[in-house]
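Notebook entry, structure prediction.
Reason for the run: the old model in the group folder had no record of what sequence produced it. Starting over properly, with the input documented here first.
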Amino acid sequence: LFRSPSKRLLADSFPPSTKSFQEAQSQLNQAAAGLNQSANELVQASRGTPQDLAKASGKYGQDFNEFLQAGVEMAGQSSNKEDQAKVVSNLKSISMSSSKLLLAAKALSADPSAPNLKNALAAAARAVTDSINQLITMCTQQPQGQIGRAY
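New structure, fully documented this time:
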């Protein structure tokens, strides 16, 4: 569902961002809020039909791609490889959490009556939220001379 954008995370470097730090941070915050909302909607859809779950999964995939683009843009805010690596490490963590969330949704749609799968889906959604929060915290707590420096 989101393999090709995730390949960006394998890059050794990122092109310099065309946005100001504030614009990139605002875009990342908005995309993070959207992805978090989609994760919650996926959990809520688990109480509905398999079609509801499929629709919510598709929306999650779209929101993930937007989030990833915003994250790559944030990585491009710094020419420092170490700063970029920190952002990318967090993006990879969110990508892994997202994969687990979508796998849990797929398993649940195959067996909607399995109670443990609903718990697994909710836990996976919490892991996505936690991973997103770690990235946002890192990007906002770094002094502007670090990840947010305008080069």
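Summary: The mean pLDDT is 86.
The old model has been moved to the deprecated folder.
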